[in-house]
């Protein structure tokens, strides 16, 4: 499905990003560049061993720093010549509770810088490449938190950041319509290390609100990301795919 295609996945060595990287390689992707903040040689070496026919590269990058994002994406373009797919997925959770009780703005700034500004920096860089190529697919990881306010936890900063990603996707879909597609995926509660800090009683409260009654698995997101990356979605732009176990339908 993705043979002869190249892709970039930010946050691609862990959690949801790793599931995306793996499923693209399983679909025959020819070239993959993983961008991540934490170096993970073991993950990269394992992927190279499992998918020897694919060219796999790793780039360390802090998506909060625009200069680093632009530099790394330029390096990948030089390496790949053409970038067909870009998944802006890197993100962090809000763990600080009620916004009004914060002593300073550091946590707010950090979440907005990673979850929204980091996506913007990636989009700005890859958009110019897509325009020059005359083609491309940008997929951005939003969240069901862009559509609803989660309970019982308080996470205003995260919700705001993901709502921004959702609307950025719609806006860029219109702006880029002549040359590229832009879509978002909105995961619900997914069982990754990002939710390891959450106590079990809070998770049980989540489950009572999710029609499926559980968290999703990272691999259960793959169909959405694979569809939006593939030629099966050439008329799909400006859309958002919710994969939330029915949470937003209640």
> What profile does the largest beta sheet have?
7 strands, parallel
Domain module tally: 1
Write down the Rg: 17 Å
Percent helix, as a range, is: 40-55%
Give the low-pLDDT segments: none
CATH architecture call: 3-Layer(aba) Sandwich
How are strands sequenced across the largest beta sheet? 3-2-1-4-5-6-7
What's the total number of strands? 7
CATH homologous group name: NAD(P)-binding Rossmann-like Domain
Q: Would you tell me the overall average pLDDT?
A: 96
Keywords:
7 strands, Rossmann fold, seven-stranded parallel β-sheet, alpha/beta, 250 residues
Topology, element by element:
Elements: E1 6-10, H1 15-26, E2 31-36, H2 41-50, E3 55-60, H3 66-80, E4 85-88, H4 106-133, E5 137-141, H5 156-175, E6 181-187, H6 200-209, H7 222-229, E7 240-243
Parallel strand pairs: 1-2, 1-4, 2-3, 4-5, 5-6, 6-7
Helix pairs in contact: 3-4, 4-5
């Amino acid at each position: 499905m993705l043979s002869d295609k190249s892709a970039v996945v930010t946050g691609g060595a862990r959690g949801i990003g790793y599931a995306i990287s793996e499923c693209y390689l399983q679909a025959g992707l020819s070239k993959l560049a993983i961008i991540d903040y934490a170096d993970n040689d073991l993950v990269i070496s394992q992927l190279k061993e499992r998918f020897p026919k694919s060219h796999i590269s790793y780039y360390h990058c802090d998506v909060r720093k625009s200069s680093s994002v632009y530099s790394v994406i330029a390096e990948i373009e030089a390496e790949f010549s053409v970038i067909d797919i870009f998944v802006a997925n890197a993100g962090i959770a809000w763990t600080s509770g009620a916004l009004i009780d914060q002593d300073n703005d550091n946590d707010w700034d950090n979440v907005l810088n990673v979850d929204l500004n980091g996506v913007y920096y990636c989009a700005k860089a890859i958009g110019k490449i897509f325009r020059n190529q005359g083609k491309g697919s940008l997929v951005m990881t939003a969240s069901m938190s862009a559509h609803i306010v989660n309970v019982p936890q308080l996470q205003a900063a995260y919700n705001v950041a993901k709502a921004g990603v959702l609307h950025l996707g719609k806006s860029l879909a219109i702006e880029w319509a002549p040359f590229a597609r832009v879509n978002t995926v909105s995961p619900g509660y997914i069982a990754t290390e990002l939710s390891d800090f959450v106590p079990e009683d809070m998770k049980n409260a989540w489950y009572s609100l999710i029609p499926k009654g559980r968290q999703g698995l990272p691999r259960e997101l793959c169909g959405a990301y694979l569809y939006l990356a593939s030629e099966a979605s050439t008329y799909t732009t400006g859309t958002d795919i919710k994969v939330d176990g029915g949470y937003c339908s209640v």
